[in-house]
Write a structure and sequence with these properties.
The protein is of the alpha+beta class and 575 residues long. It contains 19 helices and 23 strands. The longest helix is centred in the last third of the chain and has 18 residues.
């Protein structure tokens, strides 16, 4: 955690706290789960929990039994075109396949499509051929009309009322979708759109025969969103006990063959420490590992763990809407920069994440080929610099120690999701660090679904702390382009910058990798200067898997919704 080192209440207090409890006891109580807020807008999602691991493949697979996967966040929806968080996408990925999927290294592979699409010489037309004899779980044929309907929800004006986080991009770049026969889908883009397949080719396909008669507003509130009657993934919906678990059963009509397992259960637990503890006891079979308990879990014979780099970062974002009180506080770039200089992020990585992460210098994760390690402005921990920036911007400390300007106090509330022990601890660190420079920041913990709603729709927050998970493509328009400030979009912070918009659009319209990398370098330079949503660290993925579970294959790009190995998982005891 990052707090002051000069003895006025920051990091030294945290160190004393750890000494008083002992680090091990502190971890057991307040833990640290690799967690994030994930929104997936074609390759990007607010991340609730990050980790990765795996079991082993075995040709002696047994049929039957179940797997319980634990996490500390409930889902929000089971509609793939409405979902914007990894918790929901994780469950959606078990029940709905897309045209394509990811290998764990980020390579695209076919799913409902027979193969990767044929792309026209001008780069504007994508022709997909669906696998033959695709079936919904109710026995109805899955056809090209289902694919067209699914994408129409996020781009067709007929469905403008659908609150999809993908609308900002798809309504701009999809020109038309044709279905010349039940197995053929032809998607034409309005211009060359480099990340189309990686960012938008993987959405779970929805059943037109169930939802097709509804208008946009009705789809937003359809019963299907919480209890889908038909599915096309490896498993089908059985029951969602809100706040407790989602139960799924084998889909015998699955195109890749019926799964070995009878059931897959997504279990909701109170916090990240509970997830790790239940991995130890065997109450759950799969789950993200709390970084604070990583070493302890390594000694548990019944659990296999792995850790790897992921396209994920943890960041906080200011509400920059000028109509809000927060918008007035954070409009000045000097304030945003000062708050970042006041944080000792290396100590956050060390003390909160126990070294399972890396201080971030950029908004692009290191897994991206466009990553720039040293953009225009670099931020180290510098309290004097932070105070100098605030002084220069006219924010003066009052008798109560809080800075103010023109009668407006530098006072605000910070929100994150309860149960994510890393984030809870980080808010405390941020509060103490900023108090040391005359800023009054109050932590507030809310449930993950409510946090996502705050970001994508309600938007009354001052500052939120979350995580973001990206696709294999470096496009970050879903989070930073002004067109995605629309309702349901990921740019809930209301960041708008004409130059950023222009650069992101240029990068999307060329397939020349070198040109794109140069443009994304310019983008990273601007973001390092503007810091509308400072990235604290790049996370690592950590997953624990019970040795009774075989066939998992977690990796950087398939730990959440994209899990092509789901149907191959089996349990050694058949239970």
């Amino acid at each position: 955690m990052s707090l002051d080192e000069d003895g006025d209440g920051g990091f030294q207090q945290f160190e004393k706290f750890l000494e008083a409890w002992s680090r091990r006891d502190f971890l057991k109580r307040t833990g640290g789960a690799a967690a994030y807020l994930a929104f997936l807008a074609g390759g990007v999602e607010f991340l609730e929990a990050c980790a990765g691991g795996g079991g082993t493949q075995n040709t002696a697979a047994k049929k039957g039994g179940h797997v319980v996967e634990g996490n500390f966040s409930d889902i929000r929806t089971l509609n793939s075109m409405l979902s914007s968080d990894t918790a929901s996408n994780q469950v959606i990925g078990l029940m709905f396949d897309g045209l394509l999927n990811y290998k764990k290294n980020g390579d695209l592979i076919p799913a409902l499509a027979q193969d990767l699409p044929k792309v026209s010489s001008d780069g504007l037309t994508y022709t997909f051929k669906l696998r033959s004899n695709l079936k919904w779980s109710d026995g109805n044929n899955l056809t090209s009309e289902d694919v067209k309907f699914t994408y129409a929800l996020a781009y067709d004006p007929q469905y403008k009322d659908v609150s999809s986080p993908r609308r900002g991009d798809l309504s701009k770049y999809i020109g038309s979708i044709d279905t010349p026969d039940p197995q053929t889908v032809v998607i034409k883009t309005t211009q060359v759109y480099a990340p189309f397949l990686a960012s938008h080719g993987l959405y779970g396909i929805l059943p037109k025969h169930v939802l097709g008669s509804m208008d946009g507003k009705a789809i937003n509130t359809a019963d299907f969103n919480t209890a889908p009657t038909v599915c096309c993934g490896a498993f089908k919906f059985v029951k969602w006990d809100k706040g407790q678990q989602v139960t799924m059963a084998r889909n015998d009509n699955y195109w890749a063959g019926a799964p070995y397992l009878d059931q897959w259960i997504y279990k909701v637990l109170p916090d990240s420490v509970a997830v790790t503890n239940q991995l130890k006891t065997g109450e759950i079979d799969v789950g993200p590992v709390d970084p604070g308990q990583f070493d302890a879990l390594k000694g548990v014979d019944s659990v296999v763990m792995s850790e790897f780099d992921v396209p994920t970062f943890t960041f906080y974002a200011y509400n920059l809407n000028p109509a809000t009180n927060a918008g007035k506080l954070f409009a000045d770039k000097a304030v945003r920069q000062a708050l970042l200089f006041a944080l000792d992020r290396q100590k956050i990585v060390t003390a909160v994440y126990f070294g399972h992460g890396k201080v971030a210098n950029s908004v692009e994760p290191p897994t991206s080929w466009a990553y720039k390690d040293k953009p225009k402005v670099l931020y180290s921990f510098d309290k004097a610099k932070a105070e100098s920036l605030l002084d220069g911007a006219g924010w003066v400390k009052g008798a109560d120690g809080t800075r103010a300007k023109n009668g407006l106090k530098l006072k605000f509330t910070m929100i994150t999701n309860a149960g994510n022990k890393q984030r809870e601890s980080m808010l405390t660190v941020m509060q103490e660090s900023w108090k040391a420079i005359g800023v009054d920041a109050t932590p507030s913990l809310i449930q993950f679904p409510q946090l996502v709603s705050q970001i994508v729709s309600i938007r009354t927050f001052d500052l939120f702390l979350v995580g973001f998970n990206w696709s294999a493509d470096p496009d970050e328009a879903p989070l930073y382009h002004s067109r995605n400030t629309v309702a349901g979009g990921f740019n809930g912070a209301d960041f708008k910058n004409d130059q950023v918009d222009q650069i992101l659009d240029q990068a999307l319209s060329t397939v020349d990798k070198n040109k794109r990398k140069d443009l994304y370098g310019q983008f990273q330079d601007i973001m390092s200067d503007e810091v509308p949503s400072p990235v604290i660290l790049f996370n690592t993925g950590i997953y624990g898997v019970s040795k009774r579970v075989q066939g998992t294959d977690f990796g950087p790009f398939n730990q959440f919704a994209q899990r092509p190995w789901n149907h191959s998982v089996w349990v050694t005891d058949g239970k």
